[in-house]
Amino acid sequence: KPTVLDSTVDILLAHGLTTVFGNPGSNELPFLAGLPKDTFDYVLGLHEGVVVGMADGYSQATGKAVLISLHAASGTGNAMGALTNAHYSHSPLVLLAGQQIRRTVGQEVMLSNVDAGTLPRPLIKYSHEPLSASDVPRSVSQAILEASTNPKGPVYLSVPYDDWAVDALPSDHLLPRRTVQTAGSLSKAQLSDLSAVVNRSSRPVIVVGPDVDAAQAQDHIVRIAQRLGAPVWIAPSAPRCPFPTTHPHYRGLLHPGIESVRSKLEGHDLVLLIGAPGMRYHRWEPGAYLPDGTDVIHLTCDPGEATRAPYGSAWVVDLFDALEQLADAIDDRGVLLHPRVSPSVDLAGELTATSVLDVLAAAGEAVSLPNGSRPIAYVNECTTLDLLFLDRVPITRPGGYHFPASGGLGFGRPDATVVAVIGDGSSNYGITALYTAAQRKTRTVFIIVNNGSYGALRGFAKRLNALNAPGLDVPGIDYVSISTGYGVPASRVDTVRGLQEAYRDALRAEGPVLVEAVVKLE
Length: 522
Ligand SMILES: Cc1ncc(Cn2c(C)c(CCOP(=O)(O)OP(=O)(O)O)sc2=O)c(N)n1
What we know:
- This protein is α/β, with parallel strands linked by helices.
- It is built from 18 helices and 19 strands.
- The chain has helices at about 5-15, 30-35, 50-60, 70-90, 135-150, 190-200, 210-215, 220-230, 260-265, 305-310, 320-330, 355-365, 390, 425, 435-440, 455-465, 480-485, 495-510, and strands at about 20, 40-45, 65-70, 95-100, 125-130, 155-160, 205-210, 230-235, 250-255, 270-275, 295-300, 315, 365-370, 370-380, 400, 415-425, 445-450, 490-495, 515-520.
- The strands form three sheets. Strands 13, 14, 15, 16, 17, 18 and 19 form a seven-stranded mixed beta sheet that branches.
- Helix 12 packs across helix 18 (about 495-510).
- Ligand TZD binds next to helix 14 and helix 16.
């Protein structure tokens, strides 16, 4: 007789959730053992932060919901850090945590996930432990559909491991073909109101956020920018690159402070803020949010982003459809802007974090191979470079850039090479990702930018007059030995020339390579 596990497998197959990122415990074994080996691919991560980081990357690279198998409360706790990224990246992750035998959880036996549905909140859209084994398949279906429905986001299900063997309900066969569609175009009236406001503006400016990249709507932004003759900035704290940085209207990444943003909006009477969770400020710069007389139109896929922003009029839309409608509806002012002045490049000087970016830029956005070329997808988790990366390294394609990634792996696609630029400090949060890279022979170039310090925190310590704070430096770590220990070949460089040669060779490798770039703290 079919079981709860059989019904669950049918639902996972129907939605294409056949790649499972996980780290197992005893509670998960009956589920994992029941997945057909010929259709399910289990990607082992050695720490749940890396498991969720890889799954987040895979979800952003494929645009699909991704299944994650975690161990009870301890696995969920380890995953919470990476969930803060996935939550704000609207990544449709389906976290399935194994629970102890249903009737023993109340007495809190070993490996009980007590009050499981509460544990991952608030970083989860939907979190549940079914009240009976028979409701597990329907809950799995709800979890997948909830994760994949705008605004997409992580969901969490805790399932006692004795549930899987329980008989399935006759009605379970109705679940695999369930779908949920959301329609988010602008109505005729909304489009008329919105385009009237835009056409009335004298000097509009566009600020684009990560969901434009997730919706692959860059071309619509380019059309809107060119029809308006408007400059384009990337919204602060950018986890993706939503606009081609080589386009003449591109002006750079807005720095994450109130005054830093306001000063760039000076002289513009209308801000079109698109596909971003508002302006995600980071460093505290008290002052006026906007220049006097400047209005904000905010287009977002997420009602929460629309309601919590501190200013502007918001429309909750399907970004791709709404931007296409808007690009067709607004007047064409026929004004093309001149490109911004690109920053000067110095590859003759000593190796610094900034010159690491210049080496990447000089090598180009694709790997040239004898039979063609292979695109590069950048993953940046080097916090002293987060304000510079999108100004110095050309990104022209959707899905070309991601920040911050805990595992730095899943962002790969079969046709691309992932170049992960990771600070020495940051690398220690997800260093076990190297093991999965080696085991899966991923095409990943890890560049550890080793300044021996939590450089970004030193910067904050200066601003906050807290330079005497402890824990600002991480000297004395040998990343080459760690890397080879996990099975990833590695080398150390401390000159620009050395990095150029190591990077060139790494790009052509068919498996993962780590380059430790020893740089001077800037
Ligand atoms: C999980 C986690 N822990 C701690 C921090 C705090 N933190 C830390 C520890 C930073 C320093 C990272 O140092 P790095 O060596 O990776 O890069 P830089 O030297 O370029 O800043 S930046 C920052 O916000 C964090 N953001 N996330």
